[in-house]
Structure formats: structure tokens, C-alpha cells
Amino acid sequence: MPKNTIGKASLIQIQMVNKITYSAINRQVDFESNANTLLDISIKNGIPHLHECGGNGICTTCRVRVMDGINNLSPKTEFENASCQVRKWDPSIRLACQARPKGNVTLQRLIWSSGEINNLQKELVPRGRAEEKPIAILFCDLRNFTNLSSHNLNFDIAYMLNKFYTALGEPILMNNGVIYQYVGDEIVGVFGTTGGTAQKNCEDAIRAALGMQYSLESLNRSDLKDIDIKLKSGIGINFGSAFLGHLGHPTHKQFSVIGDPVNVASRIQNETKATDTDILISDTVLKNVDKDSIVIGRKFCNKVAGKEDALNLFELKGFKAMDLQLELQASMNLMLEDEVGFAKIFYDKVFKLAPFVRALFRKNMTDQGRLLTHMLGGIVYSLSRPEHLMKGLAKLGQSHVNYGVKAEYYPIVKQAMLETINEVLGDNKTNRTIEAWNEALNFVIDTMKTHAHS
């Protein structure tokens, strides 16, 4: 074959356009063989793809299952190999931020929502044995459920329980906790399964408990407003060393938390009925948090089943000052209840304030809206993992430069976002809510600008 023919064939091969197929959403995008990762390609094509650490290979939230074309991906990096071995992944699972395609690939994203991220902590828990760790344990019991059950059909009870589990489970997940189990009308959360300081684990549990109260109040005002009953909850929090592991029959092992601190947390929750309180914490929790940051009500010294000595218990009323994370978490689900509507209001305001930026948005605005709400939700969830959040925002800032975003556009975005939040939340907002979002947006924008325009 003549040399010039070989050259032309090689050139055609280099310029050949390949395809990435996203099987679960029936979407196909083109890419040219270059240095881009699977995650880069997703972002470039407006496909929401979780990457909590910003695609820096620190977390594993961008993981995908390769359905076809596994040989068309670059070899695993050192970090990816380590993650695969620790988590015992099968060969078809790859990290999208590490894998670079060189031909057609069909894949499926495995982590779809920010709420799923916390369950990844269970992958690092030992299998077949238990490992002792200091953790905070939260028990939450639904009050008045017996009356609710006796006056409604089983189908309606199941519907309301799912509403209850969702509303009260979200604060656990938003605060780096794991939903351990559901027992009837009770939900159990564990904080610290992958480490963390005693103070952080206890503060995460406290913030989750207060968030659960907010969520239940919201549930009573909305979904349950037509039912002649108001749901309440009792929450008990304890801290101590317990054993964590995947235990059980060889064919059916499950995540388990065993130890006296777990039993005591359950007993503390029971005491909320006797003391007519909403949230009770143990002295071990109180000792591990900044006492000046929380409001403590009544104090009790109660004898509980299974313990010889009486327990010192403290009624938790809330935070003394505005807690940024709690305020953002409490408003986010209401704010993004209609994600499409929220995004439309926001972009309408942006284009009204700055018509010239409309040229930056060449893609489908529905896809752009999904990316916006995906980003907002991810930021709120990542607040409990600040080391991931900072790297994620840095990557986001750099990406926006590639989109053509200039530093002077950020004040416009902030104004439009605050106006949108104000409008969407309506009567559900407070001065603290707006203050929290204003502070959060300042932090997000400053971090993005620093890394994007330095």
C-alpha cells in the first residue's frame, strides 16, 4: 500500500467520531478520541453525572457500569485499582473521572442521587466480622401512628409511611449519616461509620435530628394537612463505641451495628415519651459538642431498662445561632420540589437581568435546568463533607470558564438565584433562610472565582 494511503487512513482514524451510549436514559453522544474522561464527556453534553469531589478521584460517586466496550477504555489508574480492590467491584465497574474512552462505549451511571452517596459508606464496612468504631446513633419514633393506622386503609398507611421515611430520612443522609434500619414506624441513623471526629459525628446527628423536626412540620402542613391528626416524633441520640460489620448467613450478610450504645440510644428515645420532649441527648453526646453552640432545655436523671445506673439526659432545643447547613437543608427539598419550574424561573430572571448571557446557553434549556438543580442539591449534600465540596467547586469554576462565564457575571447569577429562592419558597421562608442562602452563595461564588480566574 502506498505511503500516502496509509497516512490518509491514519488521519481518518484519528478524526473518527465515536459514541458514548447511556443505556438507562437511552441517550447517545458523540466524542472525538482525545484526553477527555467519561465524566468530562457527560458534563460537556449536559448529562447530570454525580462527582462529589469534582472528578479528582477522591470519592467514587462518578462510578459507572460498562455494558459494552470495556476494552475501549484506558487502563485503571492507581487510585481506581485501590478503590476496586477495597470495595470488591467486578471488572465492569469503572470511575468515570479516571476512565478515558478511545472507542464506542455503552455505560450505565450507578449513583443517581446525592442521597445515595451515604450508602457507599457501607462498602467499607468489614464483611463477616465486626470492627469497633466510635459512632453517634439516632433513634426516631413516630408518634400517634397507632391512631393513624386505625383510621386509614393499609394502602394509605403504606403511602404515608413512605412519606415519613423519605422526609425524615433525608436529614440523616444530608448530614453524612447512614440509615441503618426501619422498625415499623421507627427510623435509625448512624453517624461516623467511616471515621470522623467525635465532635463532628455528634454534631451531624444533632443537625439531623433538628432537620427531622423541620421535615415533619413540613409534612404536617402539606401531605397530611387533610388528615385530622398531627404527627410528632421522639428522637434519642447517644454516642459510644459499637461494632460495625456485614454479618449474617454466608448467603445473606447485611450491614449491622451492635453494642450497648445502640441499645442505650433506643432507651433514650423511649424516654422522650415519659419526659414529654422532642429530642433527648446523652451526656456522652453533650461532652463531645460545643456546649455554647446549642440550646439545652430541661435536664433529667432517669433509670432506663437494662442499665443499673440512671442516665443523665438533656433536652435539645436547637442551635443558638443560625446554622448554615441546617437552614439550607431545611429549605432545599421545598425549593426543588418542582425542579423544572425552579430552573425556568431562575433562567428567566438571569436573561432579564443580563440578556447578553443568553448566547452562552446553546443547549436544550431543559437539560440546562437539570444540571442547575443537580448542582444545587449536590452542594447542599456536600456541606457535610467539606473536603469534597472545595474540590468540587474548584472544578465547577474551571468548567464555567470553558463555557464562557466571566467573573463579572457572578453577581447577576447571585441576584437571580436569591430572587428565585424568595419567590419559590414564598411563605415557607424565614429571614434565616435567606441569610443562609446569601452566605452560601457568597462562599460558592468566591470559591469558584478563585479557582477559575486565578
Q: Topology of this protein?
A:
Blueprint: H1 3-15, E1 17-22, E2 27-32, H2 38-44, E3 63-68, H3 78-87, E4 93-95, E5 105-109, E6 131-143, H4 145-150, H5 154-174, E7 177-183, E8 186-191, H6 198-221, E9 232-249, E10 252-258, H7 260-275, E11 279-282, H8 283-287, E12 294-302, E13 311-319, H9 324-335, H10 339-353, H11 365-382, H12 386-403, H13 410-425, H14 431-452
Parallel strand pairs: 1-5, 9-11
Antiparallel strand pairs: 1-2, 3-4, 3-5, 6-8, 6-9, 7-8, 9-10, 11-13, 12-13
Helix pairs in contact: 5-6, 6-9, 9-14, 10-11, 10-13, 12-14, 13-14
General shape: globular
Instruction: Supply the helix-strand structural class.
Output: alpha+beta
- Average pLDDT metric: 87
Instruction: Write down the secondary-structure element order.
Output: HEEHEHEEEHHEEHEEHEHEEHHHHHH
Into which percentage range does the β-strand content fall? 15-25%
Fraction of residues in helix? 40-55%
Number of strands: 13
Low-confidence stretches: 9-14
Oligomeric assembly: single chain
Number of helices, counting only DSSP H or I runs of 4 residues or more = 14
For the largest beta-sheet, the strand count, sense and barrel status come to: 8 strands, mixed
Please tell me how large the radius of gyration is.
25 Å
Distance between the termini: 52 Å
